[in-house]
Design brief:
239 residues, mainly beta, Jelly Rolls, 2 domains, 9-stranded antiparallel beta sheet, 8-stranded antiparallel beta sheet, 0% helix, 51% strand, globular, binds (2S)-amino(carbamoylamino)ethanoic acid, binds manganese (II) ion
Length: 239
């Protein structure tokens, strides 16, 4: 399709909006029958990487030296003795190579970050199911539900949550904070304020927000909007 050079994607010093029409696919070393779309990486100033992996039949990839958070978007994946399907996720500790494989086509999002340990503690691997995590209203607002996918434990140096907004619901205020974000729109649509710009966004879009990037979201449409959001967490800013 011809877009005459137009896209909703935008790259600024303190944020990236990456829409599916601008995704570029290339396999990473160790991938078999699979390819990656790199969303966030140190090349844009991020302290983490986030990428989508698209697996074909009999596809596989492996986690690297960093801690990894793996969330299944589509299909069924096997890792170690476990299998994960849509909405299920795994956290894998650093320095442990784990092969993730799929017999059928599948899509998964991966977040990797060097682990900053607390008193030398590195947690063991864990798995979970987003649908079984109870939602908590954001700042008392029932129309915005937050699901916290990783334990509230100082051994973890990042948080990964989902946030579900009823149509018309918004973040209560423009946030400006030291933590950076990687965000994948999972469902619905809305308006994201990033820095001094307001962007229409919808399911499939990725957003990176640098530290202190002003941010706000309002959900539009007739169905809830939902996103998966990463942030660095639980560490003094000097560490
Ligand atoms: O956790 C957060 O900082 C979250 N409320 N930010 C966001 O949704 N942009
Ligand atoms: Mn935030």
């Amino acid at each position: 399709m011809q877009h005459l050079g137009h896209t909703r994607s935008s790259y600024r010093r303190d944020h990236l909006l990456q829409t599916p029409d601008t995704f570029v696919r290339a396999p990473l070393p160790g991938m078999r029958n699979a390819t990656a779309i790199i969303h966030a990486a140190p090349a844009i100033g991020a302290g983490f990487t986030q990428y989508s992996v698209e697996l074909e039949c009999d596809g596989s990839f492996r986690t690297g030296p960093a801690q990894s958070f793996v969330y299944v978007l589509q299909g069924r994946l096997g890792l170690a003795e476990t299998s994960l399907s849509h909405g299920q996720y795994a956290w894998l500790p650093p320095d442990r190579v784990t092969v993730i494989a799929s017999e059928q086509p599948a899509r998964v999002v991966v977040i990797e970050k060097p682990h900053s340990s607390w008193n030398g503690i590195v947690p063991p691997p864990l798995t979970g199911d987003e649908r079984l995590v109870p939602g908590k209203p954001l700042a008392g607002d029932e129309s915005v539900q937050v699901r916290i996918l990783l334990p509230d434990d100082p051994a973890f140096d990042c948080a990964v949550n989902t946030m579900t907004y009823q149509p018309g619901a918004t973040l209560p205020a423009v946030e400006i904070h030291v933590m950076e974000h990687g965000l994948l729109m999972l469902e619905g649509e809305g308006i994201y304020r990033l820095g001094e710009k307001w962007y229409p966004v919808k399911a499939g879009d990725f957003i990176w927000m640098a530290p202190y990037c002003p941010q706000w979201f309002g959900a539009l449409g007739k169905a809830p909007a939902k996103y998966l959001i990463y942030k660095d967490w639980n560490r003094h800013p000097l560490t």
